[in-house]
Amino acid sequence: METRIEDLAPLGEIDPTEIVNSIADPLLVLTETLTVEYANDRFFDVFAVSDRDTIGRRIDRLGNGQWNIPDLIVPLERILENGASVANFEVDHAFEGIGRRVMRVSARKTVRPGNGSRRILVVIEDVTSEYDAWYALQHQKALSDGIIDTLREPLLVLRGDLVVISASREFYATFEVREEQTLGERLDNLGDGQWQIPDLLNLLTDVIPHDTAVEDFEVNHDFPAIGPRTILLNARRIPSRIGGPDTILLALQDVTHQRKLEAEREAALEQSRQLLEELNHRVMNSLTMIGSIIALEARRLSDEECQAALRRMRSRIDAVAALYSNLSKAHSIDTVDASDYLSALVSDIVTASGRDAQITLDFDIARAELSTRTAVPLGLIVNEVVTNSMKYAFRDRDSGLLGLRLDREEGTLRIRIWDDGGGIDPNARVDSGLGQKLTEAFSAQLDGTLERESNASGTSYTITIPEHAAHS
Fold first, then answer.
1. What tens digit of pLDDT does each residue of 54-101 get?
2. Where in this chain does the record put each Histidine kinase domain (predicted)?
3. Cβ-count burial of 59 within 10 angstroms (0-12 exposed, 13-18 middle, 19+ buried)?
4. Residue 1 lies in a domain
5. Do 360 and 417 share a domain, yes or no?
6. Which of 51, 192, 204, 368 is a good FRET partner for 234, with 20 to 30 A between their CA atoms?
């Protein structure tokens, strides 16, 4: 809109000094020789100079030559020679008194009516803070882009409306896309719509707006260019501080090869587990067969001492077979539940003695897992102790009580086997028997201790082993 002279008539009633002093930016009026003819109060305030040191001096001599700035002087001289005005050119200069300033300068040449003398009106806007903020923003952007490009996994920076702002080099390399096809596009429009992945879009449009971050969200998708991929997503929403759309950081880790290796490993482990289960089953069958053969041989012998020795041998073999039977039933390859294993072992020994209807069993076994390395020697100890109880504790009795208790105490397993028989004859040579030597040897193998107590109320054996040994 062009300003008419008659529209300016009301200004004639106002002191011109008041008008120019109301301008928020520094203003100078220069003569043809670039001598300062007038400066408003704002100029004196911003540049910390006085009117005495300013008015009547050439601009390049102000402040002992501080204003001798070629980037400022040259455009002003060109106005006098060739043009009417220049607008918004920037001058970056360090002043001695006030430090560095970035000035945005606009200047216009005027010609006074009558004598034709020329003047230059110069408006100087101090944009130092704005200029530094802009460059700091550019530096931060360059730093962010550099960080993104150094990442070893694909990364996208999205606006809240899913438009791609930035992408890492690894994203372009992994998904075989180009920068010009990516930046400025909505995610679901990339690559002819190949990123229209429902799980991903639901994550970004429904989950992220309500949650600040989502971690390790896995999606599977078949990309036309690179084939099926398993992608692990980590997303974080960065709220805007100026009222604009939020920013979404989306890291995409291609775990396809890793998942393939995991699946192959699981398949190999499953195959190994099945083979070991089959091996355990065959060992159990073999031990049972050996025990049956020993029983047949025992029945053919007439010597009672030989028969007793073979029965003890079969009992020990049956104790080991009970372990593998328990492994087979539990579909386990190297650990058994202590309660299942020990209670079944004791029950089988009592049943084999033919007195299961007369003997009451009392079990109190804490939950614990036993490795086969522990279960075998422990089972053999239990077999020897229970067998002796059945042989000696209940002589001339129609009933009896036999118990086994397992406790976990401060890093140890404590197994107590007891009966309510008449106790061990102190004159008997029990310490010289093979069974006693075996129990002591198996206790040592478990890094444990074996203690025995016996009186007229019964006999008890307590085996104490480190809990870590039970799992090794």
1. 999 998 888 888 888 888 888 888 888 887 788 888 889 888 888 898
2. 278-469
3. buried
4. no
5. yes
6. 192
Tell whether the model's pLDDT for residue 39 goes beyond 70: yes
Q: Which residue reads 């002003």 in tokens?
A: 76
Structure tokens at 189: 């429009």
**Cα–Cα distance, 419 to 395 (Å, whole number):** 12
Query: Token pair 């401060």 is at which residue?
Result: 410
Scanning 107-231, the segments in alpha helix (DSSP H) are: 128-150, 169-175, 198-202
Which ranges constitute the DSSP H helices of 181-332?
198-202, 256-300, 304-330
Q: According to DSSP H, which parts of 243-303 are helical? A: 256-300
Residue 188 lies in a domain: yes
**Domain boundaries, position 303:** 255-333
310: phi > 0 → left, psi -120 to 50 → alpha, else beta; which? Answer: alpha
Q: Looking at this protein, which amino acid is placed at residue 135?
A: Y
Q: How many CB atoms lie within 10 A of CB 119?
A: 17
Residues 370, 390: contact at Cβ < 8 Å?
no
**Token pair recorded at residue 458:** 């019964």
**Lowest model confidence (mean pLDDT) among 48-62, 324-338, 369-383, 410-424:** 324-338
CB atoms closer than 10 angstroms to residue 244: 10
Of 333, 357, 391, the last residue of a domain is 333
The H or E element that residue 176 is part of is none
Is 33 domain-assigned? yes
Measuring CA to CA, which residue among 89, 49, 97 is closest to residue 71?
A: 89
Nearest CA-CA partner of 28 in 101, 82, 107 = 107
- Do 353 and 471 fall within a single domain? yes
Instruction: Evaluate whether residue 3 is within a structural domain.
Output: no
How far apart (Å, rounded) are the C-alpha atoms in residues 383 and 312?
A: 9
pLDDT of 451 > 90? The answer is: yes
* Co-location of 300 and 224 in the same domain: no
* Confidence grade of residue 432 (pLDDT, cut at 50, 70, 90): very low
Q: What whole-number distance in Å separates Cα of residue 351 and Cα of residue 463?
A: 24
The span from the CA of 360 to the CA of 397, in Å, is: 13
Query: Are 50 and 66 contained in the same domain?
Result: yes
User: pTM of this prediction?
Assistant: 0.46
CB 57 within 8 A of CB 50: no
Give the residue among 366, 321, 310, 304 at the shortest CA–CA distance from 340.
366
Q: Are residues 350 and 429 in the same domain?
A: yes
